């Protein structure tokens, strides 16, 4: 009897070369790219957590939606997050989530989660460059710019 198992894969959607990929140069450029990827019908209703996957030249390999939650929070499963990060061979990350309320101040839970992801990434020689909080009108808070990373 032959045993069968499923093959795990990751899929990139899009038809462009990495040389044509946008390069992240600042928290503002990252926010603009992330904001464009957000569902504008949902950004003011539910929290969503995304990760921007970057190569070693900070060119965007892709954006992955890790979770969608409720009005005031979303659950981020680090195993799912890092399954995608490792499979994509990203070397730098930018974390992002929205605050439907429009508040730009990070919560203590936001700070703890950022530290937890940053520490896990270190084990894989992956760098968390920033964690952005984005509001429905496109304003943002950058952990890196504010010295919280």
Characterise the protein shown here.
By secondary structure, the chain is of the alpha+beta class. It is built from 3 helices and 5 strands. Strand 3, helix 3 and strand 4 form a beta-alpha-beta unit. 27% of the residues are buried. The mean pLDDT is 93.
Put the structure in a nutshell:
The protein has 149 residues and is α+β, with helices and mostly antiparallel strands. It is built from three helices and five strands. α3 links the parallel β3 and β4 (127-134).
Outline the fold blueprint.
Layout: H1 27-37, E1 48-54, E2 60-68, H2 78-88, E3 92-98, H3 108-123, E4 127-134, E5 140-142
Parallel strand pairs: 3-4
Antiparallel strand pairs: 1-2, 1-3, 4-5
Protein name: RadC family protein
Domain MPN: 23-149
Keywords: Hydrolase, Metal-binding, Metalloprotease, Protease, Zinc
Pick out its properties:
149 residues, alpha+beta, 5-stranded mixed β-sheet, 23% strand, globular, metal-binding, metalloprotease, protease, zinc, RadC_JAB
């Amino acid at each position: 009897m032959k045993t069968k198992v499923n093959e795990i894969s990751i899929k990139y959607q899009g038809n462009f070369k990495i040389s044509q990929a946008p390069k992240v140069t600042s928290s503002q450029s990252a926010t603009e790219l992330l904001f464009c990827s957000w569902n504008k019908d949902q950004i003011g209703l539910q929290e969503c957590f995304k990760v921007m996957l970057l190569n070693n030249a900070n060119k965007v390999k892709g954006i992955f939606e890790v979770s969608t939650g409720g009005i005031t929070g979303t659950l981020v499963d680090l195993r799912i997050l890092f399954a995608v990060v490792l499979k994509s061979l990203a070397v730098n990350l930018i974390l992002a989530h929205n605050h439907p309320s429009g508040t730009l101040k990070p919560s203590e839970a936001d700070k703890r989660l950022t530290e937890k992801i940053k520490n896990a990434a270190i084990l894989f020689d992956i760098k968390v460059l920033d964690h952005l909080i984005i509001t429905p009108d496109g304003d943002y808070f950058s952990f890196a710019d504010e010295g919280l990373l």
